[in-house]
Model the fold of this input.
Amino acid sequence: MVGAEFTTDMLDLQLDSNSRFYEAPVQMKAANGVFILDDFGRQKMAPQEMLNRWIVPFERGTDFLTLHNGMKFEIPFDQVSIFCTNLRPMDLVDEAFLRRIRHKVMIPHATEAEFREILRRVCVTQGIDYKEDVTDYLLDKYYRKTARALAGSHPRDIIDQIIDLSRFLKQPALFTAATVDAAAANYFVEM
Done:
C-alpha cells in the first residue's frame, strides 16, 4: 500500500550501494497479492505519468526491470491493483486508461444506519461507552443541519479527536455532546 508519497522511482529496482542488494519495486512486492494506491491523483507526479509506466504491464501481465548495468529482465505483473481516490476519474486520466483499469467500484457515503454502526464499533474498539442520544446529537447538529455527507471515516476521526483532547486534558475519553462539539470544532472546516 502506498499513498501520496508514491513516486515512479518506486516502480523500479533500487540498488543499495552499501549492501550491493536491490530493493524490489512495489509492484513486485505485491506479486500474487494486492497493490493499493491510496489518494490516487495526489502524488507528486501526474497520474498519467504513473499509468504510462504501467500500460504494458497491465495489458501483458509482465513488467520489465532494469539493473544498474542496463541489463533488462522480465518479471510477472500479477497483482490486483486498487486505485482509491475521491477525485473524479475523468479529471485524472483519459478514457484509454480507464479501459485498462477493468473494474471500477464507486463506494457511496454511508447511510445513517451504517454510520451509527461504524461509530458504535469505533467506540467499542477504543473502549468508549457508545451513546445513542449523543449519536443523535452528532447526526442532527453536524450532518442533517449542515447537509454534510456521512463519510465512513468520520466516526473514527471524530473519536480520535475526542481521545486526543482527553489525553491532552488528562481526562477519560467520553462520548458526550460536549466532547463531540470540541471534536467537531477541530475536525470540520467550513469552506
